[in-house]
Structure formats: structure tokens, C-alpha cells
Amino acid sequence: MLEIWGRKNANQVIQVLWTLSELGVDYERHSIGTESGDLDTDDYKSLNPNSKIPTIRDNGFVLWESHAIIRYLARQYGFGNLYPEDPQKVAISDQWMTWSTDSFMGTFFPVFWQLVRTEESQRDYNKITEMAKQSAEVLKVLEGHLANNKFVAGDEFTYGDIPLGVLIHKYFVLDIKRPTMPGIEAWYQRLTERNPFKEHAMQPFGNSPDEFLELQTKGEKNL
After folding, report:
1. Per the omega criterion (within 30 degrees of 0), is the bond before 163 cis?
2. Which of 122, 123, 192, 220 is 20 to 30 A from residue 159's alpha carbon, by CA?
3. Does the predicted TM-score (pTM) go above 0.85?
4. Longest dimension (CA), the chain
5. Over the chain, what is the mean pLDDT?
6. Model confidence over 202-219: pLDDT tens digits?
7. Per residue, what are the HEC states of the chain?
């Protein structure tokens, strides 16, 4: 059976769990990244020398980095479906997967960090407001694309929707001002109708500020 290491509410782990659920692949999850030093043991570092999550082992094959894992799983278990046969649709899926981290995450994660990972008394609400505005500006690119596409690679859901979908769910549930974006809103609605999305992406995410401060003190390394 495929194994995955990571706590279920970590952003990158959610992405992989959603992928596995879409594919109908059975797996065993080892909860790690929750206690002091559990990512730095010799046993875990023999799997992932970065001491981060997630990591998978599939019939002896070990892989880390969430996007690489998603691509591998989609091709291995969902070729022609979650992983398109058309190389151009694959390229577009990869494009938006990369965009999710290289463009959107840089402006949005400071918002997430302040509202979810920071004690309320220490939050910088001016920064939250400014970064939320920047996030909305960045999302205009996605809005322009989804105005004419049901999913990021066209009419069909692909692995390229997954990393971005996890982030967009956070964007929609956090208490920030959001301009109306009909294309993104319609796409998000389509995602919420998928049971794997409900099961993994729509569950409570992150830790409470108190829990996070404790983890941070202990050396937690993953979001």
C-alpha cells in the first residue's frame, strides 16, 4: 500500500491527499510534523533529507516535494484522466501549478500567516489589507483565464487545479475583502462539488495561533 508522511492539515499534504482521493488510491498516512523533532529523526531523514512534509513511498519508490508527488501520482494512476494525454493540456496544468506558488502564494501567504498563524494581538492589519489587495490583483490573471475555461486546463479537471484549489479555498474562507471575480467563483463552486475536495481541502486547516506558537518554539518546519 502507498504510504504518505505528513499531518493532514498541512497545505502541501492536503494537496497530495486530495490527489490520492481523486484517483481512488488506497494509502496509509503517517502523521508527522506535529511533535518536536519528529521530522529530524534518522528514520525520516533517510526518506526525506530536507526534514519536510509530505513524502510518499509507493512500492519502495520514495518521492518528496508536493508538486512532484502530484504529477507522479496523476500520471501513474490517472493517465488519460487526471493526467491528460494531450501534452499541451499537461503543459497548461503545469503552468498553473507553477503559477500557484510563484505568483499567487507570495502575496497570499502573508495574509494566511497573519490571520491563522499569528496571535491576534500581534497581527499587522495594515499588512493584511495590503497583501489581500495584492493577492486580488494577481488573481486577475486567473480570472481572465477562467472566464473562458471551466478548469485551469480547459473543460476537464486535471492535477493542475489541485495546488491552486487548495490555496483558493483559504482565500475564500479567510476574513478579507475580495473583489467579485465571476470566473474564479464559478470554478471554486465546481471544486466544492467534488467529494475529494470536500474531504480534504474544505476541512479546518492549520493550527490555532496557540498551537502554532508551541510548534514554532519546538522547531516546526512545515505549513
Report:
1. no
2. 220
3. yes
4. 51
5. 91
6. 987 654 433 333 333 333
7. CEEEECCCCCHHHHHHHHHHHHHCCCEEEECCCCCCCCCCCHHHHCCCCCCCCCEEEECCEEEECHHHHHHHHHHHHHECCCECCCHHHHHHHHHHHHHHHHHHHHHHHHHHHHHHHCCHHHCCHHHHHHHHHHHHHHHHHHHHHHCCCCECCECCCCCCHHHHHHHHHHHHHCCCCCCCCHHHHHHHHHHHCCHHHHHHHCCCCCCCHHHHHHHHHHCCCCC
> In the block, which residue shows the cell 479567510?
174
pLDDT 10s digits, 67-92: 999 999 999 999 999 999 999 999 99
What is the spatial distance between Cα 163 and Cα 38, in angstroms, rounded to a whole number? 25
- Which grid cell sits at 150? 471551466
Calpha distance 110→124 (Å, rounded): 10
Q: Which residue in this structure is represented by grid cell 494531450?
A: 86
Q: How many other C-beta atoms lie within 10 A of the C-beta of residue 196?
A: 18
Classify residue 87 by burial, with Cβ atoms within 10 Å: 0-12, 13-18, 19+.
Answer: exposed
